[in-house]
Write a structure and sequence with these properties.
Elements: H1 6-15, H2 26-34, H3 40-51, E1 54-58, H4 65-79, E2 85-90, H5 94-111, E3 117-118, E4 123-126, E5 134-140, E6 157-163, H6 170-177, E7 186-191, H7 199-203, E8 211-212, H8 221-224, H9 230-233, H10 239-249, H11 254-259, H12 275-283, E9 293-297, E10 305-312, E11 315-323, H13 327-338, E12 348-351, H14 355-365, E13 370-373, H15 388-401, E14 406-407, H16 412-418, E15 423-425, E16 431-433, H17 436-441, H18 448-456, H19 476-484
Length: about 475
């Protein structure tokens, strides 16, 4: 049967469009439309999405996870007839939805010269006129975790992308699977395997029904020698990064297992801060209302690190970290940090054991607001805890479980130190923590940042009237009243 010509042919093609030549070739589409070079695992992921309804990718740090997912989204929309395809994405945080995945989708959209427009709130519209636009792509924010939010999404070709899948709960996976109503639908879940209690771990098991592609560091081009252009190699994980993490996290630590080996960490009952609790504390968003208080862990010229953290109503952030600094310089830095707020305000809790003792003495001579901390002192509740260190760490854990701690998700050294801490019960039934010496024997670094956060959170609990007064943030109105008076 011959095809009609002219106007009739164009009408015929709208009803019976010819398949896109790249409909079964996502790799070829990326080369043709984006001029992009894909390495072997990226090609394997794309072909798996083409061939399998469900694909799971537990991955190390830095292999181009979000880049691959974003290009898949662009390919999916471009190769299917207009109006027949839909892309739905989600991630654990609003930042991951908008600033990471959809930023890459927008770059791919622009580079390929695709139609439609992508908005700042992670939505992709297509249509010649704004009044006639159709939604063909959407990114759901964390507060949209109500499964009902995915109702009403219908298309013949649906692609679901779950970025940083370890932080997405099973209820949301169940809701997303309701979009997989026909043989053409596809779902990709990709992320670091950092939480062994997450649903992501379940789907990455053998026999789960998902096609699983694991990407450890050792299988990326900078380790295998696979050829990639220099600009691609520069964006992938490097041996230098791995060596730095070996020194900071230790081989075999939970973060090492997850972000280097692409394996879900082996977490036992004696882990003080499991990955699920760490993620919970990193996901919290606490708005500070007070000037807060500081915590400092003092080191000198060894491998340990002098660091300082500020806790404002549970919003805990690092303000200082440096290796190989003399105690006189450290004393001056602490004094300069807290003095502008007034000597009677903004207390600093400092580890007084060892090197820290001299710093505490010097700061006390300046009449600054210093609280010494000795982890070896008896606990306030000495029937439950062996010493103050164990009690303070346990209080920090309880505060985290109560959503009272908000940690910086980008402080990877802190995360690594928190997740390797182990606890046990002694013969008297008291809780105690693994010593720093035992940690060193396991090849782990000193938990300087973790100790600092412990002092700034759990160590303050139970102090009662011994905690100096902490004032609230000054207001503009209050400042004006003081000037008038």
């Amino acid at each position: 049967m011959s095809l009609p010509s002219g106007v009739q042919r164009r009408a015929w093609e709208k009803v019976y469009p010819e398949p896109d030549p790249y409909a079964l070739d996502p790799h070829g589409w990326c080369k043709k439309k984006l001029g992009a070079y894909l390495w072997s695992k990226q090609i394997q992921i794309m072909e798996s999405v083409r061939d399998n309804r469900f694909t799971a990718v537990p991955s190390c740090h830095g292999p181009g996870k979000s880049w691959s997912a974003a290009r898949l989204a662009c390919w999916w929309i471009d190769v299917h007839p207009p109006g027949s395809a839909m892309v739905v994405t989600t991630a654990p945080s609003d930042h991951q939805v908008k600033a990471i995945l959809w930023k890459e989708i927008k770059r791919g959209h622009r580079r390929a010269g695709m139609s439609g427009r992508i908005t700042l709130d992670a939505k992709w519209y297509q249509g010649e006129k704004m009044a006639d636009e159709e939604l063909i792509g959407t990114g759901r924010k964390p507060q949209d975790y109500d499964p009902e939010m995915f109702q009403g999404i219908h298309a013949k070709f649906v692609l679901v992308l779950v970025d940083e899948a370890g932080g997405v709960p099973k209820s949301l996976f169940d809701a997303l699977e309701t979009l997989m109503t026909n043989d053409y639908a596809r779902m990709l879940a990709i992320g670091n395997p950092d939480d062994p209690t997450a649903y992501f771990e379940t789907i990455c098991r053998y026999g789960s029904g998902w096609n699983v592609i694991r990407i450890p560091v050792w299988e990326t081009p900078n380790f295998t020698g696979e050829y990639v252009p220099s600009d691609v190699a520069e964006q992938l994980v490097t041996p230098l990064w791995v060596e730095e993490r070996r020194q900071k996290w230790g081989i075999g630590s939970p973060l090492w297992q997850s972000k280097v080996e692409a394996q879900f960490p082996e977490i036992s009952d004696d882990t003080l801060i499991p990955p699920s609790l760490l993620r919970q504390m990193q996901a919290n968003s606490i708005k500070p209302h007070s000037l807060g208080h500081y915590a400092w862990d003092i080191a000198r010229f060894g491998s340990s690190e002098t660091c300082g953290y500020l806790n404002r109503d549970g919003h805990v952030r690092r303000i200082f970290a440096k290796h190989k600094q003399d105690t006189a310089t450290t004393t001056n830095i602490i004094a300069q940090t807290i003095y502008p707020y007034g000597v009677e305000y903004v207390p600093s809790i400092i580890d007084v054991v060892g090197i820290g003792g001299g710093v505490v003495d010097s700061l006390n001579m300046m009449d600054l607001n210093i609280i010494p901390f000795n982890g070896g002192d008896p606990a306030f509740d000495d029937r439950r805890f062996r010493n103050r260190r164990a009690e303070a760490y346990w209080k920090m854990r309880e505060q985290g479980e109560a959503d009272q701690i908000d940690l910086d998700p980008f402080d990877e050294i802190l995360a690594g130190q928190l997740t390797v801490l182990k606890w046990a019960i002694d013969r008297k039934g008291r809780i105690y923590l693994e010593s720093k010496e035992d940690m060193r024997r396991r090849g782990l670094p000193s938990p300087d940042r973790a100790d600092c956060v412990m002092m700034g959170t759990g160590a303050m609990a139970g102090m009662g009237d011994s905690v100096p007064r902490i004032i609230t943030m000054p207001s503009i109105t209050g400042d004006l009243m003081k000037k008038v008076m």
